[in-house]
């Protein structure tokens, strides 16, 4: 009462000074500045601590300063990545303009066309220098003769674990290296791909600006990925969530269960009852991916999730994703990759929790990505990104 204002008890510290100031500003009343007492879980920031160093001190506001400093470094890294991607894009544009304007004959060469598609597919993981190297592989084309305004700021991002970024030809053949070193034999290893799909009542919404509902767009996108990016030796699993979690299809080799997989996906229907057990569904998927004897130890494991709302109804001990946090810390599957698609406006805590999972996967050497789509009509575009990631995982090329 003596201090006045409101008492704010935040359970999370945002990643920017601006947001934190806004948090504290809500406590002020007239001439009273208000008070705050942060009660946070150290495990939520473990991936940041491991990435940037430093410790959270119990009972000290220095911990808040540390988290805000980590956020500043994350922001700087995103700005750097954005600038690098811009310059890579500038160089790609310069190369393509030269090809279309001066060397259209190359598009009649099947090998040259494949090399061009490969470069376009991977440019988001390539520096300006690597773009030049990729285009140097085209017969009779010299990138050094193409003027450039691009600055080489390095790679915008590292490729997914196991993905390949083509380098110079070696003895007449294309050699490829990736995040995990030489890619020899990588494409022969069966992958495990588990789709975690929201089939709650809200997925029946027709706000996609297409003849299809949200769920129908989702299903069509998954069907395209299965047809074009999932190989016969790969394992496919499907988990759906809404008022409950249902394992529609445990991981099954596509070549063996192709007809069953098609039938299961075609038969998916949204649920009319309320509830979105997202956190419980993610935990179920991780447990499936970690199942002993599934594929081979070196196989990449992909979790692809889509939700159009905040979690509502997961078991109490997992109401904020706590069990998923613990699983990723203690029992995360080897070679785990995670792509999370959210549709609509989710609560900040939900987005931060998912973002922390994605970052933890990236810190572990896998591909982690959060695709937040405000517009439901962009569901298809989000799944196209998934298709690109899966294509890169085995060194393929995709024309979309």
TrEMBL record:
<dbReference type="InterPro" id="IPR036465">
    <property type="entry name" value="vWFA_dom_sf"/>
</dbReference>
<feature type="domain" description="VWFA">
    <location>
        <begin position="192"/>
        <end position="344"/>
    </location>
</feature>
<dbReference type="InterPro" id="IPR002035">
    <property type="entry name" value="VWF_A"/>
</dbReference>
<protein>
    <recommendedName>
        <fullName>VWFA domain-containing protein</fullName>
    </recommendedName>
</protein>
<feature type="region of interest" description="Disordered">
    <location>
        <begin position="146"/>
        <end position="166"/>
    </location>
</feature>
<dbReference type="Pfam" id="PF13519">
    <property type="entry name" value="VWA_2"/>
</dbReference>
